[in-house]
Structures are given as structure tokens and as C-alpha cells.
Amino acid sequence: MILAKVLGNIVATQKNHRYVGARMMMCEHINLEGEGTGYTILALDAVDAGVGDTVLIVQEGWSASTVATGKAGAAIDSAIVGVVDHIDLLDALS
């Protein structure tokens, strides 16, 4: 799982038929403190995330394609599978 911040939407007028109706988002990896790392990634949105949201991204072929499109076998590397409400570091640091 990758922790990331949604930077914006990607618009593609021509795309594979398996992606019809799916939204593609540009995301930046963040650390546990919410700071950007400078590494960006494209991911299909499976949870209706929005710009500025902190999200969880799965980056594995079968999981990503099934979650994002509802069908196994689509050529998808990354999918947004959760919107993070809160990160609690108190227990992790003690």
C-alpha cells in the first residue's frame, strides 16, 4: 500500500474500453507526516477520491485491475482503494 495525496485529474479522450467510466488521478507519495516525497504516480480511482485527499493506493496488477474496473485482467498498475480520514502516529512512535 502506498500513502499519497491526490494532485489532480488526468483526462484522456482515447483510452482502452476497460477504462470507460474510470477516473485517473495524479498522486504524490507522502510520508507519515503528510509531506510530499516528489514521487508521483497515476492511479485509477475506485473510491471517488478528490483533489487534496490523502489516499491509499494498491500497486499490484490483479488487485489494482479488479478494484478499479470490477474485472480482472485490465492492464492497470495502480488503483486508489481508500480515502484516509486520519493518521494516528502516537502508538507507532512510543
Strand order of the largest sheet: 1-2-3-5-4
Distance between the termini: 23 Å
Overall helicity: 10-25%
Q: How would you state the average pLDDT, rounded?
A: 84
Rg, rounded, reads: 14 Å
Note the run of SSEs as H and E: EEEEHEH
**Main structural class:** mainly beta
Major sheet details = 5 strands, mixed, barrel
The count of DSSP E runs of length 2 or more, i.e. the number of strands, is: 5
Q: What is the beta-strand fraction?
A: 35-45%
Shape: globular
Keywords summarizing the entry:
single chain, 94 residues, mainly beta, 5-stranded mixed beta barrel, 2 helices, 5 strands
Structure characterization notes:
The protein is mainly beta. Helices cover 14% and strands 39% of the residues. The chain is built from two helices and five strands; from the N terminus they run ββββαβα. The chain has a five-stranded mixed β-barrel. The radius of gyration is 14 Å and the shape is globular. The chain starts with a strand and ends with a helix.
